[in-house]
From TrEMBL:
It holds the Pfam family Pyridox_ox_2. This is Pyridoxamine 5'-phosphate oxidase family protein.
């Protein structure tokens, strides 16, 4: 745990979890699941509170065969779901491109999406520091060595929960526009895929950061991938 990379190679799905519409887009490739979870930074946690559905976006990290999320001990719904052993769903989606077909009806998206079902488990207190470090290193690699240590008060107000990757359904579309020589469409109308690319922008120092303060290595690595240079903010 917290760095353990062992995993099984396929997703086991029970009958209720099987995709029924466009079932051919379902994948059981666990490597594809891990690639999705290791690339995206935000997922959506869905719970039912007092009979009302609640969906909240949350930062997360994959640690081996679990997802890690965190929140305030005073914040409620996730800890309540964990205490009640309620089944939750955690969804992660990556939009990879827009598919322009020769009709609006046939236009689509290329994407990878996964929904994890299960019960949130509180991380034991003696494992909280390691779990928070794993979460931080996923979101902001290298930052933990550049800032002060977390105080006991901060630790006491933070709770880490984990969700096992035991019950997962994943769906993928990675194809061009549907077309055929004899489909009856006007082929002089452009059709194809517009890939979506994302990139970090230029770092912007806070108001109270003194002029000339070097941009830290963690930020440089995030925005440029270059760990060997130093820049001035």
């Amino acid at each position: 745990m917290y760095g353990d990379t062992r995993f099984v190679t396929t997703l086991e799905t029970t009958a209720p979890r099987r995709i029924r519409r466009l079932a051919e887009r379902q994948t059981t490739d666990r490597t594809a699941l891990f690639e999705l979870l290791d690339t995206e930074l935000v997922g959506h946690l869905a719970v039912v509170v007092d009979g009302t559905p609640l969906v909240v976006p949350m930062g997360f990290a994959r640690d081996g065969e679990h997802l890690l999320v965190h929140g305030s001990t005073g914040g409620g719904f996730a800890l309540r779901a964990a205490a009640e052993r309620a089944t939750v769903a955690f969804a992660v989606t990556a939009l990879d491109g827009l598919v322009f077909a020769r009709s609006l009806y046939d236009s689509s998206m290329n994407y990878r999406s996964a929904v994890v079902y299960g019960v949130l488990e509180p991380v034991a207190e003696d494992e909280t520091d390691a779990a928070l470090l794993a979460l931080t290193e996923r979101l902001m690699p290298g930052r933990s060595s550049e800032v002060r240590a977390t105080t006991r008060k901060e630790q006491a107000s933070t709770r880490v929960l984990r969700l096992a990757l035991d019950d997962v359904v994943m769906k993928v579309r990675a194809a061009g526009a549907g077309e055929a020589v004899d489909d009856g469409e006007d082929h002089s109308v452009w059709a194809g895929v517009v890939p979506l690319r994302r990139a970090w922008g230029e770092p912007a120092a806070s108001v109270l950061t003194p002029a000339g303060t070097p941009v830290p290595d963690s930020v440089i690595a995030l925005t440029t991938g270059d760990r060997g240079s130093r820049r001035i903010s």
